[in-house]
């Protein structure tokens, strides 16, 4: 009976060998190579990210999505999720990934400004291992950027 328990334990360990349970393994799996944010007075905008993604495990993975939250000068301006389907090898070789998110704001009386603004972008890359296991590799970038135009603040509800 003890041999059966050991055999089952080995099967479980072998099945999960490559997917780390430690969250810190995913903290360095994504690096933001380039970040571009543009807003226009007509309410349109675009966020473009160039990411470098590494597989922190020894199992094959599939990148299934990229999510983000964008804040400028402490004000949250946009959140989003884009589904993708990109294979990621088990060899730890980084994979380049570029994603663009359309940004929509209320047009009109925004702020024309050539001042530098504090931009904070946080988010994650969703990695799928097999049919049931998903992990989120996070990223965080804070930069000072020149943004020629910013959307107006949302009206306050009273």
UniProtKB/TrEMBL annotation:
PROSITE patterns: PROKAR_LIPOPROTEIN. Keywords: Lipoprotein. This is Putative lipoprotein. It comes from Hyalangium minutum. The lineage of its organism: Bacteria, Pseudomonadati, Myxococcota, Myxococcia, Myxococcales.
